[in-house]
Amino acid sequence: MWGIFFEDINLGADGGIYAELVKNRSFEFDNPWMGWKKLENTPEGSLLIVNDAKRKANARSLQVNKETAFKVGLQNEGFRGMGVRQGADYVFSLLYKQQQPGLSLRLELLDENNAVIGEAKLAMENREDWQNASVNFTAGATTAHAKLNIWIEGAGAAELDMLSLFPTETWKNRPKGLRKDMVQILADMKPGFVRFPGGCIVEGRDLANRFQWKKTVGPIEERELIINRWNTEFNHRLTPDYFQTFGLGFYEYFLLAEDIGAKAVPILNCGMACQFNTGEIVPLDELDEYIQDALDLIEFANAGTDTPWGKLRADMGHPEPFHLTMLGVGNENWGPQYIERLAAFQKVLHEKHPEIAIIASSGTDPEGERFDFLDERLREMQIDIIDEHYYRPPSWFLSGAARYDNYDRKGSKIFAGEYASHTTRPNGPGRSTWEAALSEAAFLTGLERNADVVTMASYAPLFGHVDGWQWSPDLIWVDNLNVYGTPSYQVQKLYSLHKGTDIIPIKRNQQNVVGQDSLYASAVYDEISKELVIKFVNYNSEPVDAIFQIDTKRKINGLGSRIMLANADLDVANSLDEPLKIQPQQAEVALKGKSLAQSFAPYSFTVIKLPVK
User: Are 239 and 470 in contact (CB under 8 A)?
Assistant: First the structure.
C-alpha cells in the first residue's frame, strides 16, 4: 500500500540519485559546452565539437588537435559542484579513439578554493576505433563543491566522449550506479512499490520530448539524451542546465524496485503531451506505436530470454523476469481525448496481457467537473486502478479523512498516486512543515481505514536538491553530500513500517474517528507479526487523554510499544542543520486487562503496537 513516487525533478536523477558527478558528459546538451570551460588560452581549432550523425543517439564528441605539446585543459563544474569525501575512491572513465598517438590525460579534483585534492593520470593507446579507459584515484578532502580539471598532455589527435566521474562506493557497489545514501533512505521506508519515471516528464512539454523507455535501456553511451521538461517550466526557478541523460533508465528503475523489495509500477505515455503545455495528441490511427511500447515493456520485464526484449534484459545483467503486475497508461491526463486513447490501450492489453492491471489517470484535481467526468467514465470502463492526485492545504487533508468511507467497494481500486499537504508553494528547501505532515497523518488514517479500496499511496515529489529545486515541498531533501527526510517522510515511513494485513474497526461513540474534537484514528492487525497496530492523531494544542477498549477473544500481551512524532509548534521543519527536529520517540505502554489508557501530546501522531496471541 505505501510506496514511493519517483520523478526526475529537483535534480532527482541527474545530479541526485544517479551518482554521475560530471554534467553534460557527452556534450549533448543544447549548448554542447554547458557545464564545461576551457582552461588556459586554448589555440583556435585545438578543441572542437564533432557531430557525427552515424552515432545517432550520441552524435557529439570532443575532437582534440595538438600538433605540439602546448597546454590544453577542460574544467567541469558538476551539478552545483561535485560532492566528494575525504578518503573515498573515485573512477574517471571515458570513450576515446586516437588518430595520432601521443596524448594522455592528467586529472585534478579541486575544492571550492581551487586547491588540488585528488590527482590521476591516464594514458591513451593508439586506436582508431572507440574504446573505454578508466583510472581510479582518492579524494584528499571533503567538499560539496568540487570541480574536475582534465589536462590533455602531449601531442597528437583524438576524439573524446562520455567523460565521467563516479564514486566507487555506490548502492550495492554497482559501477556507474546510484548514490548510496539516497537509495538507503528509500530502503529504510520498506516501500511496497516504486512508481516511475513520473510525473509530468512522462508526457513531456511536447511529444518529441516525451519519455520513451526504449531510449533508456541498453549501453548508456547509446541512450539518447533529451531536455528535462522542468528545465524551463517555472520562471521563478529556471534551470537551463537540466537534461535527462538516462543513465538512470527503465532497467535501473526495475533494479531499484527489486533491490528495496518493492513492486515496479511504470507509467507510459498514452499519446498525449502535457496538457498544461502544448497538449499535443497523436491521431488515434497512429497510436499503435505507443501501444506497442506497452507490449514491449511487458516483454522486457516478464518474458523469457528467447524473446527480443527479454534477451536485452538478460544482456543487461538480469536474465530472471522482474514480475511486472501493473502498468500506468498516461499521467494526469484528462478529457474525452484521454478516454479514447486509454480505451485503445485497454482493448489490446486486456486481450494480450489480462494479468497486467491498468492504472489510469483521474486528472490533476480530486474534485470538480474534470474529476467527475473521468471518475464516471473510468468506472464504466472497469479500469483496474484509478490514480487520484491531491496537492492541497492542510485543511483539505483534515476534512478529507472520510473521503473513501463511502466509495464503491466492488468498483475500481484507488491509487493515491501523488499527495502532499502544501502550506505555501514554492517555499524552498525543508519547508515541509510539521503542520503539513500532521494533516497528512490524519488523512492517511482514512486511507488505511479504507485499504480495501485505496490499495496504493505515495507522496510526491520524492526528492529535492537544496541548490537545484523547481518544486516544493518534497519528501526528502539532499545536497551534494547529505540527505534527510522531512516530517512528511517520517509520517509515511511510520505507516509503511507498521502496516497490517487486516483492517480493524476503531470507533468513538459508534463512529469512525475522523475529526471529532480534532482526533483521527485507524487500526490494523498484522497477521505476520501478530500485533494490533493503532494510529492516532491529536490535532489539538492541548494534550488529550484516551482509553482504548479492545474487543477481542484473543489474548493481548500486557506490554506494548508506542512511537510518537510530536511538536507543539506546527511551523517547525527538518533541515540540513537539524535533520531530526521531528523524529520518532519510543516508549513502552502497559495494558490493564484489555484496556489501554494513554495521554497524547499536543499536535502529535502516535503508533501503538500491541502483541496479540
Answer: yes
